[in-house]
Amino acid sequence: MKILVCIKQVPDLESRFKPNASNTWFDEADLAYRMNEYDEYAVEQAVQLREECGDSSDLTVLSIGPDRVVEAIKKALAMGCDRAVHIQDQAVSSRDPWQIASIISAYAREHKFDLIFTGMQSQDRGSAQVGAMLAELLGVSCATTVVGFSCKDNVVTAKRELEGGVKGVMRMKTPALVTCQLGLNIPRYPTLPNIMKAKKKEIIALPVADLLKEESLAKTTSFHPPAKKGGGLLVEGDIADQVDKVLALLKEKTAVLR
Amino acid sequence: MKTLLIGEFREGKLLDSTYELFGFAGQAADEPVMFMVGSETQLPSFGGRLYLADAAACGEYNPDLHKQLILNVVQKENPDRIVFVHSSYGWDLAPRVAVALKAAQVSEVVAIQEGGFEVGCCNGKMRRIVKPSTPQTVITIQAGAFQGVQPGGTPQVTRLAAPGGGTMEFVGYEPAEEKGVDLAKAEVIVSAGRGVGKKDNVAIIAALAKALGGELGASRPVVDAEWVAHDHQVGTTGQTVSPKLYVACGISGAIQHLAGMKKSDFILAINKDKDAPIGEVADVLVVADVMQFVPALTAKLAK
Ligand SMILES: Cc1cc2nc3c(=O)[nH]c(=O)nc-3n(C[C@H](O)[C@H](O)[C@H](O)COP(=O)(O)OP(=O)(O)OC[C@H]3O[C@@H](n4cnc5c(N)ncnc54)[C@H](O)[C@@H]3O)c2cc1C
């Protein structure tokens, strides 16, 4: 079984975001990066499948971006991926989902993967497009927003999460793609021995120009904070003062303190 | 502009979110036509043209087939926009349709803007304006962003035959888990978010809930990490609540969480990040470390 997992590196979302010079995305200076949360579930599921299938299987992790994304790739290798593909792209943040899906499909088409895992969306862009677009470009079956997964005899059973906690169960034959939702599994922490082992694993670097043949279909024309809608009262300062202020407000504005 | 709206139908029922599509079309001053896989007995209140495929024949979930039906209608109607709700149905189907048409897709639109569409990003902290450059555009709208509108009337129905096929087999629905705790009845809910740091700290949040005579709630990551049981989860995939007082402890305020609690009478948030999007709905945002503020508040309440 040949397995691919696609990951994205995203900034820590507790950061403050400032627009970049062209006002189309955030300024990358001073931001700390990590693996997109949804992709951690994708890597974990791919590694579990890799373990189930044993040595007849092979798991590649792929990420597009500048050199910093190698950090996220190394984490995926330490979690148990066999090898990595780093598609080097300095301009990754200006690509639209269509271009990202096109780049990955150009790579994946040649390698004929049986199963592809992606996150259901990225935490920073949140478009939820790339996985399903990739499946469509490759002409493989696809289940999105998956919170339950098993694969036996080349048949995938996937549990999709619907609104209000209802789930939809579906089956499809490989080759297939699933986009992973929060809660699918509990992603493992890489252990020290596995981090050491990962250092010896191969990271294949490919320039994006070899794979990108498509123009973007949509452009970002502005990046800005949301308009403040009046908003609430900000209580800052010393903890004891904050407690007193909050108690006074709760007494005044709610009927719950008796 | 001509707009094809994709209605939603699940477990035998027309979904209310379908009317938000008319809200979008109204704001855009578009001429709407609707497509849906649904039932004759559950027609939307809309006097325009409706292309209807029978869910009993096509399956409520069969993306290959639904995509093909939509593409057939697109060919007939040649719409400028194809609009879905950003839901488990819409975000699943929209990219498939967009690729087939090689049309730009704009996801989770919150507003129509001069020259483009406004969408959220960075977990709700920032916004982008996205401008499509293709003649046809596929759009998904954020649930709740466009007020639902019932245009009224009875649709002129064009029935579509089920073309058959599809590579995916729908096995069935699994109902939501039984609720052990009915948060909807609670007057006070104190919820723990990922900002509480670790499982052991949940007890400190629960102690505040107790001191206020309320129930413990939780954001999803706290539930996924098994710090708190699922029946305490608030949000689109958990419970929807509107207590007299909602206290959000270390919760960023992602749209899926807000959808479950923004109708609360009074919202108190504790967050160390004063730009956290929870501030948009909170009546009071205390900028502090939850692990310092919450025990101090609980102690004072006990006096
Ligand atoms: C289809 C779908 C459905 C979803 N359904 C739900 C749902 O039903 N309910 C739900 O909650 N989410 C849901 N989510 C997930 C949602 O998008 C967010 O990921 C989630 O709500 C974030 O939870 P959080 O705020 O606890 O964590 P985070 O977003 O990680 O936020 C943690 C917050 O804590 C603050 N913080 C950190 N440390 C401290 C400290 N020491 N003191 C004070 N503050 C601190 C940070 O500043 C941050 O604002 C869904 C997502 C998807 C895609």
Automatic annotation (TrEMBL), chain A:
Organism: Pelotalea chapellei
Family that this chain belongs to: Belongs to the ETF beta-subunit/FixA family.
Annotated Electron transfer flavoprotein alpha/beta-subunit N-terminal domain residues: 23-215
Annotated keywords: Electron transport, Transport
Top-level lineage group: Bacteria
Name by which UniProt lists this protein: Electron transfer flavoprotein subunit beta
Record InterPro entries: ETF_a/b_N, ETF_b, ETF_beta_N, Rossmann-like_a/b/a_fold
Keyword Transit peptide: no
Automatic annotation (TrEMBL), chain B:
InterPro entries: DHS-like_NAD/FAD-binding_dom, ETF_a/b_N, ETF_a/FixB, ETF_asu_C, ETF_asu_C_CS, Rossmann-like_a/b/a_fold
Keyword annotations from UniProtKB, A to Z: Electron transport, FAD, Flavoprotein, Transport
Keyword NAD appears in the UniProt entry: no
Superkingdom, taxonomy of origin: Bacteria
Domain Electron transfer flavoprotein alpha/beta-subunit N-terminal: 3-174
Similarity comment: family membership: Belongs to the ETF alpha-subunit/FixB family.
This protein's name: Electron transfer flavoprotein subunit alpha/FixB family protein
